[in-house]
């Protein structure tokens, strides 16, 4: 009887049925797309290119700055980072992980845009990164680097994509350390100088530490939602206190690297200017009361990374 009673109030036009009870979703704006690109993470793509280029100038017999190759390295890093971010939006959305998200919904999870559209955008950025990488290969003749680029894209996809994403099994930090630290920095140095001085390795490790720290800040913010969704990040496994300690250790180790390098290249002491942003981030990690504060900590950690990288590279170049 209740169903029959309700049906008397339903419009006879099938196109209009249910519209009164369920408002139309808000249209997707440019701001939504920019938000999905997660601009706060992009400084992490810049840092290894800066450090790697500084190491390349140091390694080059003529101390030359190969600015064209450096710019294409920057394009590869930034485009790949954006591709990863859209890929995560797509994969987390279709898996239902973002259904537990607190705050503004991601593009895919919100249902305001087809999941395939988000996937297409992710693949487009991966493709653009591949084209920029191919340009570097053609310019330098380092054809084996095509395989490196392919591995980077595959690793970026399976971070949250596929049936067994390693980002869901406490391996995300290892991924960002290897690819956004070691591979990005050393690859930048190699294509410019075809040589890897030990300074490039030190800088690569430091860049990787910053990338891991940002991921930890992000996962600390999402720990409750990830646990509810069954997403086993490293933060979910070691808990809040363990994450805070690990974050602190990684940041301190990055500056320990700078201090060691400064024994041979004194300008590297200026890398500690990164603490202008990194210091408040550390304080927030330990004293935060709301998840919103951790968004600020994430952004500050990300910003501190290129500040560190600029002075680290200056030390090597000077």
UniProtKB/TrEMBL annotation:
The chain crosses the membrane at residues 42-59, 65-86, 118-137, 143-162, 174-195, 201-220, 241-261, 267-287, 294-317. One of its GO terms (biological process) is vitamin K biosynthetic process. InterPro entries: MenA, UbiA_prenyltransferase, UbiA_sf, UBIAD1. One of its GO terms (molecular function) is 1,4-dihydroxy-2-naphthoate polyprenyltransferase activity. Pathway: Quinol/quinone metabolism; menaquinone biosynthesis; menaquinol from 1,4-dihydroxy-2-naphthoate: step 1/2. Keywords: Cell membrane, Membrane, Menaquinone biosynthesis, Transferase, Transmembrane, Transmembrane helix. Pfam families: UbiA. It is found in: Cell membrane; Membrane. Its main location: membrane. Its EC number is 2.5.1.74. Residues 1-24 are annotated as: Disordered. It catalyses: an all-trans-polyprenyl diphosphate + 1,4-dihydroxy-2-naphthoate + H(+) = a 2-demethylmenaquinol + CO2 + diphosphate. Coiled coil: none annotated. GO terms for cellular component: plasma membrane. It is a multi-pass membrane protein. Conversion of 1,4-dihydroxy-2-naphthoate (DHNA) to demethylmenaquinone (DMK). Belongs to the MenA family. Type 1 subfamily. NCBIfam families: menA, PRK06080.1-3. This is 1,4-dihydroxy-2-naphthoate octaprenyltransferase. The gene is menA.
């Amino acid at each position: 009887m209740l169903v029959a009673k309700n049906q008397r109030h339903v419009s006879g036009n099938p196109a209009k049925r249910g519209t009164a009870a369920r408002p139309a979703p808000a249209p997707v704006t440019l701001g939504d797309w920019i938000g999905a690109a997660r601009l706060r993470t992009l400084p992490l793509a810049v840092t290894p290119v800066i450090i790697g280029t500084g190491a390349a100038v140091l390694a080059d017999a003529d101390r030359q700055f190969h600015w064209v190759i450096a710019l294409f390295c920057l394009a590869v890093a930034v485009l790949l980072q954006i591709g990863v971010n859209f890929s995560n939006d797509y994969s987390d959305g279709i898996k239902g992980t973002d259904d537990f998200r607190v705050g503004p919904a991601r593009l895919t999870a919100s249902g305001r845009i087809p999941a395939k559209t988000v996937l297409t955008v992710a693949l487009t950025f991966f493709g653009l990164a591949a084209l920029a990488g191919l340009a570097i290969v053609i310019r330098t003749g380092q054809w084996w680097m095509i395989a490196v680029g392919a591995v980077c894209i595959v690793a970026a996809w399976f971070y949250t994509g596929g049936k067994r994403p390693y980002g869901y099994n406490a391996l995300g930090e290892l991924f960002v350390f290897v690819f956004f630290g070691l591979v990005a920095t050393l690859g930048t140095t190699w294509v410019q100088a075809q040589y890897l001085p030990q300074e490039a390795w030190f800088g690569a490790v430091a860049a990787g530490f910053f990338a891991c720290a940002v991921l930890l800040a992000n996962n600390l913010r999402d720990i409750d939602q990830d646990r509810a969704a069954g997403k086993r990040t490293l933060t979910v496994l070691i808990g809040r206190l363990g994450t805070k300690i690990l974050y602190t250790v990684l940041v301190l180790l990055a500056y320990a690297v700078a201090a060691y390098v400064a024994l041979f290249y004194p300008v590297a002491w200026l890398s500690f200017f990164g603490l202008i942003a990194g210091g408040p981030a550390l304080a927030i990690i330990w004293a935060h009361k709301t998840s919103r504060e951790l968004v600020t900590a994430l952004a500050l950690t990300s910003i501190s990374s290129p500040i560190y990288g600029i002075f680290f590279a200056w030390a090597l170049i000077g």
